[in-house]
Amino acid sequence: MSFRSVLILSTVLAAWSAAASAEAIKIGVTPGPHAQILEAVKPIAAKSGLDIQLVEFSDYVVPNAALDAGDIQANSFQNQPYLDNQKADRGYKIEAVGLTVNFPIGVYSKKHKNWADIPDGGKVSIPNDPTNGGRVLLLLRDKGVIKLKDGVGFKPTVLDITDNPKKLKFIEVDAAQAPRALDDVDAAAINTNYTTQAGLDPVKDPILREDPKGPYVNLIAVRAADKDKPWVKILVDSYHTPEVKEFVLTKFKGAVLPSW
C-alpha cells in the first residue's frame, strides 16, 4: 500500500472515529432566529465532538414540556421570567445554563403609522402568556400609554392597569398567532421571532419598541440533572463565540442582540 493510500485511509478512519464518538443532543427551538443561530452554532460544537440536532416547536409551551420529559436535551427560546413562571406552574426541574440573545419586543399596526394615531377605544392584542403579556404591559407603561399598580413585578396583567386614558381594549392571543391578529386589531404586540416569519421588520416596522434592557435576555435551558454534564459546557462555549456573535449582528441587523 502506498504512503498516499495509507494517509487517506488514516484520515477516513480518524473522521469515522470522531463521528462515532460524537455525542448527539436534541435542542428545542422556535422557528426563526433561535433556529438560525443554533444552525451557526452546530459546526462549532461539532469540532468539540457535540452533534446538535434541532427540533422546532411552533409555540412557547411544548419546548419545556419536551425538555422535562427527556424528549430533548436542551432548549433555546425563552427568557428567565418565562422559565420561572413555567417552573412555578408546572413543577419542571429545568435550569438556565447560559445567556443567548435579546429580542426587543415591538407593537405593530397595519392600520396606523404611529402610536398617536391609535383611536380611543382601540383594540390592542397582547400575548396571552403571563410573561410576554406582562412584558408588553410594562412596555406600554414605560411609554406612558397606561399606568400599572405599584409592585407588579415582571408579570402584570390587564387587571393591574390603574389608568388607561385611551380606554384601549386589550385582547389576549397566543404569541404565535399574534401576526394574524394584525388584520383585526388596531395594534398587536408581537415577539421578534414571529415578526420575522410574518415578513415584518422588527427594527423599522414597530410603532412602539421595547428598550433592549431588563431581564428579557433569552437563555439555554437543560434539565437540572444534566446541568453539569460536559456537553452542556461545550454547547454554551460554542454559542458564546465571536463567530456566533458576528453572525447575529450581521444576519439580524439590530433586531436580535447578542447578550453574552
Please describe what this structure looks like.
- With 260 residues, the chain is of the alpha/beta class.
- The chain has 9 helices and 13 strands.
- The protein has a 6-stranded mixed β-sheet with strand order 2-1-3-12-4-13, sandwiched between helices.
- This is Methionine ABC transporter substrate-binding protein.
- It is a lipid-anchor.
- It comes from Bradyrhizobium iriomotense.
Question: What value does the average pLDDT take?
Answer: 91
The total count of helices amounts to 9
Unreliable residue stretches: 9-20
Largest sheet: spatial strand order: 2-1-3-12-4-13
As a whole number of angstroms, the C-alpha radius of gyration is 21 Å
Overall structural class, as computed from helix and strand content, comes to alpha/beta
Strand content: 15-25%
| Residues in helices, as a percent range | 25-40%
Counted beta strands: 13
Pfam family, one: Lipoprotein_9
Signal peptide: 1-22
Main location: membrane
Subcellular location: Membrane
Provide tags for this entry.
37% helix; 260 residues; alpha/beta; globular
List the helices and strands and how they pair.
Elements: H1 3-21, E1 23-29, H2 33-46, E2 50-56, H3 62-69, E3 74-79, H4 80-90, E4 94-102, E5 106-108, E6 123-127, H5 130-142, E7 147-148, E8 161-163, E9 169-173, H6 178-181, E10 187-190, H7 192-197, E11 208-209, E12 217-223, H8 230-239, H9 242-252, E13 257-258
Parallel strand pairs: 1-2, 1-3, 6-9, 6-10
Antiparallel strand pairs: 3-12, 4-12, 4-13, 5-10, 5-11, 7-8
Helix pairs in contact: 2-8, 2-9
